[in-house]
Design a protein that fits this description.
The chain has 424 residues and is of the alpha+beta class. 15% of the residues lie in helices and 28% in strands. The strands form six sheets. A five-stranded mixed beta sheet has the order 4-3-12-7-8. Helix 1 runs antiparallel to helix 2. Bound molecules: the ligand Nc1nc2c(c(=O)[nH]1)N[C@H]1C(S)=C(S)[C@@H](COP(=O)(O)O)O[C@H]1N2 and molybdenum atom.
Length: 424
């Protein structure tokens, strides 16, 4: 047994090496040379991971990332909030691939800390303008037919620090109040049909079981359309930070309305005007007046690499990697500029392109070593075009916090360093 894998490995290694060499051709330069040297066979000085056996399967019942990926973590900005209980940590977008955010890296935003809810004691109460008020246990929920849905969650305050100018130097901080997951749970429609909505009902109040008892008024139409009471995220039960054992999922709507540790749905005919939708999470206009309710997260996008955390290492071929999303549906197109918005090229979208989900785009780019201003802009299926920061300021002023979906600009310096800037 022991000597069998060796010839096979060897064949595999040279196979890969030859394939790569053929693919990269002469342009690969130094890389091509290194590959060629390895193609001769397995080196004499075996690295530790080949020379000895690794730890067994019993060593790690719940898997964790490689120690070489220890820098891929959620981070917060300490001065942003007075305490960590009412704060946010940001998703490391610069290090992620594809469209799903791993559960351990999904940003957390809460107002009274993480509630540690016992699922055996937890109940979801549905009452108000319904025929049959119900109190559902977790078991009751599992007995109802489930739905799976991939959707992004974005805090309305994402990018909120950039209204007055570029402030934070990192894609993690500029757009990292964002995650995308496959959510599993029971559609709110199923639950409301179970309880029987009375005629004249128009709104539903959703309330959390945390110390903040965060509550939001949600249009009944939205609840009957695509809302989910989710108990699972990316295949496993929700993490405590994401609202274990249940949270509300409202595809396309601002994160604040995705009530975590959900304990109550009240059906009514008017909104409740809770503090979370009056003093907070409203958009202030230049006049000082605020817009009543801005639920949808409009089209947005960001280049995740190169980025301040992902500088360039010498001129040559690179891939501009980015994410685009819209709370109004699918992403139709993403344009990329390397000269601060003067010229644009269309970036190919990577499948799957799902409505109200993160969408990937990759655009090969050769860096000539000069300075560049990298931008991307998303256009969604409604025809909406992601605005510049100046265009947004014209309608919203500079005193806003929420719903900054403006085009992000990365300045690439001749050293390859990347910096968050704003261009007029
Ligand atoms: N009960 C409750 N739900 C809540 C919150 C909270 O503080 N309490 N924070 C909201 C905010 S402001 C956001 S942006 C999202 C964040 O979801 P996440 O922590 O799973 O990323 O949860 C929302 N749901
Ligand atoms: Mo939020």
């Amino acid at each position: 047994m022991t000597d069998k894998p060796r010839p096979h490995n060897q064949a595999l290694q040279s196979g890969i090496a030859l394939g790569r060499r053929a693919l990269l051709g002469g342009a690969a330069g130094a890389l091509g040379g290194a590959v060629a040297a390895r193609a001769g066979g397995i080196p004499k000085d075996l690295p530790d991971w080949t020379a000895g056996m690794g730890p067994g399967v019993a060593d790690e019942p719940y898997g964790t990332p490689s120690k070489f990926e220890a820098h891929v973590v959620r981070r917060n900005v300490e001065w942003l909030t007075a305490s960590t209980e009412s704060s946010v940590n940001f998703t490391p977008l610069q290090d992620l691939n594809g469209i799903l955010t791993p559960n351990g890296l999904f940003f957390e935003r809460h107002h009274s800390g993480r509630a540690d809810v016992d699922p055996a004691q937890h109940r979801l109460v549905i009452h108000g303008m319904v025929e049959r008020p119900v109190s559902l246990s977790m078991e009751d929920l599992y007995r109802l037919p489930p739905v799976d849905r991939i959707a992004f969650t974005e805090c309305a305050a994402n990018g909120g620090m950039e209204w007055r100018g570029a402030q934070l130097n990192g894609v993690q901080f500029v757009r990292g109040m964002l995650g995308c997951a496959q959510w599993t749970g029971v559609s709110v429609r199923t639950l409301l049909e179970h309880a029987g909505v009375r005629p004249g009902a128009k709104w539903v109040l959703a309330e959390g079981a945390d110390n903040a008892a965060l509550d939001r008024s949600i249009p009944l139409d939205k609840m009957l359309d695509d809302a989910i009471v989710a108990y699972a995220q990316n295949g496993e039960r929700l993490r405590p930070g994401q609202g274990y054992p249940i949270r509300l999922v409202l595809p396309g709507y601002e994160g604040n309305m995705w009530v975590k540790w959900l304990r109550r749905l009240e059906v009514g005919d008017e909104p409740w005007y809770t503090r979370w939708e009056t003093s907070k999470y409203t958009d202030l206009l230049p006049t000082g007046k605020a817009i009543r309710f801005s639920f949808v997260q409009e089209a947005n996008s960001v280049i995740t690499s190169p980025a301040p955390e992902k500088p360039l290492n010498g001129p040559g071929p690179y891939v501009i990697r980015g994410l685009a999303w819209s709370g109004n549906g699918r992403i139709a197109r993403v344009d990329v500029s390397t000269d601060g918005g003067r010229n644009w090229v269309q970036a190919p979208l990577q499948e799957p392109v799902l409505p109200k989900a993160l969408t990937r785009f990759y655009l090969p780019w050769r860096w000539d070593g000069g300075s560049a201003l990298l931008q991307c802009r998303a256009i969604d299926e409604t025809g909406y075009v992601q605005p510049t920061i100046e265009a947004l300021r014209t309608v919203r002023g500079r005193n806003s916090i929420y719903h900054n979906n403006s085009i992000v600009t990365w300045l690439v310096n001749t050293t390859g360093e990347v910096e968050n800037v704003q261009v007029a």
